[in-house]
Sequence to fold (180 residues):
Amino acid sequence: MKKTIIGSVIMFATISIFLIYSGLFTPVVIEEKAMGPFNLAYEEHRGDYGKTGDILERVRGSLEKEHSIKSARGFGIFYDDPKKVPVEKLRSEVGYIVEETDAARLKSGGTALKFRTYPRLNCVVAEFPLRNTVSMFIGLMRVYPEMDRYIKEKGYSPGHSMEIYSLTDKKVTYIFPAVK
Fold:
C-alpha cells in the first residue's frame, strides 16, 4: 500500500512538472502591433486542422531537398472557426516563412509549392512557449479563448488566425488581424 501511494505521488509530481514546463501556467499576454510582411512558401489544405503537422513536414522537406532552403519559422494560417465550420470544409495554408533572397528564387518558379507575401498588418498578438507537442496543445487551449475575448472587447471582426512556430526562439506567435 505504501509503495502504491509513493508511486502515485511520484507519478503525479512528474506529470505536474512536465505540464508546468510545457506552459500550463504561462500567462497569456496580448498586445497590438504591426506584423509582417512575411514571405510564405506553403501548401493549401482543406480538412482537419490536426493534419497540418504532416503538411508542415512535407513543405520543410521540399524546401530543403529541392531548393536548399532552411527555415526555422513554420506557419499556419487558419481561415475558419472549427466550432462553426464542418471539419471537412476547414481551410488553411501551411508552410514556412522564407528570407527575401530565398523568396526571389521561389518566385522564379520550379516548385510545386505556392508562394506569396503576407502583408504588414496591425494585429492582435500573443506568444506562448514552444517546448514540446504538449505545449502546442496547451497554447491552443489557453491562447485562443483569451484572443477571442480580446477581439470581442475591442470590437474587431473575427477573421483568420496565423500561428508562427519559431524553432530558434522556441515560441508560437498567435496573430489575428485587428480589423473593425
